[in-house]
Specification:
Elements lengths: L2 H15 L11 H6 L2 H11 L4 H4 L3 H5 L5 H4 L2 H14 L5
Length: 93
């Protein structure tokens, strides 16, 4: 992985870690995601006209990032992140 890609992944991982995922619910995933900084930032980046393909790491990279190992091990968090990426049409995992 290039240094630029690694830094990009670290920034997005830090954004994911900024939220509390301990009580996340999967019965209303769209609502749950709308409350998360990660997906609000994605919305902002999109509204600003940036290319998400260039700025957002692949779902598999996020889910396997060492920084998120414990968090991504939670099946609810794993599901919500995958669901969010699928909604974006950006899931190339």
């Amino acid at each position: 992985m290039e240094r630029r890609d690694d830094l990009r992944l670290r920034v997005w991982c830090a954004c994911i870690l900024a939220d509390d995922w301990s009580s996340c619910r999967v019965d209303a995933p769209a609502q749950e995601l709308s409350d998360k900084m990660f997906f609000r930032l994605i919305d902002l980046v999109h509204l600003m006209g940036a290319d998400l393909q260039l700025l957002l790491p692949a779902a598999e990279d996020v889910l396997t990032a060492p920084e998120l190992a414990e968090l991504a091990g939670d099946p609810r968090v794993h599901y919500l992140l995958k669901y969010g990426y699928q909604c974006l049409g950006h899931d190339h995992a």
